[in-house]
Each structure stands twice: as structure tokens, then as C-alpha cells.
Specification:
Blueprint (H helix, E strand, L loop, with lengths): L5 E5 L4 H13 L1 E7 L5 H12 L3 E5 L2 E7 L11 E2 L4 H12 L4 E5 L10 H9 L3 E5 L3 E7 L7 E3 L5 H12 L4 E5 L7 H5 L7 E4 L2 E5 L8 E3 L4 H13 L4 E8 L6 H8 L3 E7 L6 E7 L7 E2 L11 H9 L3 E5 L12 H11 L3 E5 L2 E6 L4 E4 L6 H10 L4 E5 L13 H7 L4
Parallel strand pairs: 1-14, 2-13, 5-6, 9-10, 17-18, 21-22
Antiparallel strand pairs: 2-4, 3-4, 6-8, 7-8, 10-12, 11-12, 14-16, 15-16, 18-20, 19-20
Amino acid sequence: MSRGLKGELQVPGDKSISHRALILGAMAEGHTFIDGISEGEDVRSTWRCLQSLRVRITAEAGRVTVKGSGWRGLITPKRVLDAGNSGTTMRLMMGVLAGSDLYAKLDGDESLRRRPMARVAEPLRRMGADIDLKGGKTAPVRIRGAALKGIDFASPVASAQVKSAVLLAGLLATGETSVSEPVLSRDHTERLLPMFGAKCRRDGLKFTVQGALNLAGARLFVPGDISSAAFWLIAATLAPGSELKLLNVGVNPTRTGVLDALKRMGGRVEVLPRDLPGEPSADLLVRSAKLAATDISAGEVPGLIDEVPILALAASQAEGVSRFKGLSELRHKESDRLAAIAALLKALGGSAKVEGDDLIVKGPSKLKGAKVSAGGDHRLAMTALIAGLVSEGAVKVPDADCVEISYPSFLDDLKRLGGS
């Protein structure tokens, strides 16, 4: 078992905000300046796709500048737009390209080619988009720009990616485009749109944007990604004698489900608000604590969907049985993440099983060292490595380099804080 984690740490910029800031900057006219952008490979995929559409993006001294010429300034790319492993890149770019006057093909790696794209294509086609999918379901995605009309779309799932794709297409459509969802998913797109001059409004779970308006460049500050911070929140909670401060983490209310769940379990986290422009942010001071089991309801899942793997590790060390309900969305991540979480915990000596779309974890378990594969899933790799901090024996992850997708400095931070 490791010594306590002490000190301060700045986690990478929020990945979700970074994607959207780059895309909206490209669709706007003039310069957009972005501080604190994520340097993960997923965001790099969005960066490269936009550059292939003749968007000029430069970086200097930690600031990224996007020189936009409006969505009409995008050109037909000379090559396939490669989204890599990034579902966010592919789905949001589908929304942008659907109403642009060009033809493009979007593709990605083997993992991304298995992930569902019809849920995005269907509402975009209702707007008038010309989109072809492989087998009607997955990438590669072929898009021929078309004139779009606004729609009132009721999303059957709470998905920020589906919602954002439709709203981005709505910017290029005639009339108004509205998206409603059963539960509020992360709302970074809705927060960013007014900063670029978009006309929009919220009415409960429905958000509406006015189309056919010119956007203007903006100045943005991207806070630290709470999904990345979650790994250290759990690590410091589990490692005895810890006192760790995570600096400038985004605490958008649609993303703080992990804090709520950890508090219910007995975690000790102080939220110290910071007065910075843009999205709400705070320093998070976390100390070690003994945990008790909790249930995660299906309604909570959209607010902590990316944190389920590391919360499941926390549950394996908590007293009692924890049930994570309604996790069907995890079957469509980089892997079947639901099954993979259970398999990972069992490989390390934990007690976990899947029942339907629920994950049941019994604790506390005495974890043991093992050699495990993350299957290319960055969040599983980081969860396994954090487990190594509280296990008897080393946890080795041969494909740990997949953490580059979201957290390029994770392995360095792990070593600095006392991990293997």
C-alpha cells in the first residue's frame, strides 16, 4: 500500500470544453483565444480535423488561437477526417459538416468504428442532412453538406454529444432548433454558445438556438477536467494519510456527480471556489477517509458517466454493497466499459458483477497485484494504476500508454505522487 498522497496538482484542461471551444472558434468569424486547453489525443483529433477544413490553429505559451472565417469558410478536405479514438470529435463534427457546403468523410480507429453514430445521424437527417453510415449504424461517416431546417428534437437519451451535434447543426439551419432530453446532460455547449454571440435560451430541459446567424470569436479559459481529477480524488481518499489539493478544477453542476457520490460514501472533499472567468471552477482539497457503500441512480449517471470506473474502485474499498444503476451508455464507450469494469475489479481480487445494465460492487476487498490490460480504454488504464496504490503487490498495465487520449501527464503525475 502506498504512502499518503500530499501536495498540489494541476490536472489537464477539461476535454469536453476544449473540443467545443475549438469547434465554435472555427465556426466563428475572427480570432478565438483559448487558455488551458486539453493536450490529450482526443482533442488533438478535433484540432487536426479542423485544420483539414482550412481552419488555422496555433499554440504559443499555453494559449491556443483559432482564426475563424465563419462556417462558410470551411473547405472540402483533401483527405479523410480522422477522429482517432474520439467519439466527441466524430459526433460534433457531424453536426458542423451537415450544414456546410462541402463533402467529407469521417473515420476513426477500430474502437471508434464500433461505436453507434445513428443516434446522431437520425436527428440531423430530420433537419435535411445527407449522411451515410456503414451498415446504417457506424463509421465511416460520409456527409454531403445540405441546406438544413431547424427542428424540435426530443432526445430519447441524455447525451451531451447528440445534443451538441444537433445544436451545432442548428447554428447553420434556418429557423430555430430545439433539443430536449430526459435528464440534463453536461451543458458545456449551451454555456459556450452565448460567449460566441449565439442567440439561445433554456426552458427547463429544452434548449433552443437561433440559426443562420454569424458567430464572433471569443476569449475562453478552460478549467481542469473533473473527470481527470476524479482519479486523484479517489486515490487520496483511499491512501491513508493523504491530503491533496487539486487546483482549478471545473465544477460545472452537470459534471459534479462524482463529488456528490463520494460525499455520500464518507469522502472528505472541500470545494474552494475560484473567481475565474467562464465556467465555475474551484480548488478541491481531499483527505483520506473510510468509505461506506452507496447506490448510484440512473438519473445520476449523466453527471458522472466518465467517473464510473474510478468510483467502482472506491466502492470495492467501501463497507457494504454499492449498486450503479442504468449504465447502458457505458457499453458504447472505447470498450464495453460496463463489462470491462467488472472484469478489471475481479482480476484484482475485488467482488463485482453486472446485472442487466447495473454494476454491483461489494466491499471492502483486499486487492492484489496483477497484470491487466485496459483494452485501449484510457479510463480503465488509469483506474487500474490507481488500484495499484492500494493493492498488495504491483498492478501492471502493458497498454497504459492509452492514457494519452485524455491525460498525457498521468504517468508522470503518478510517479511524482508516489505511485509505481
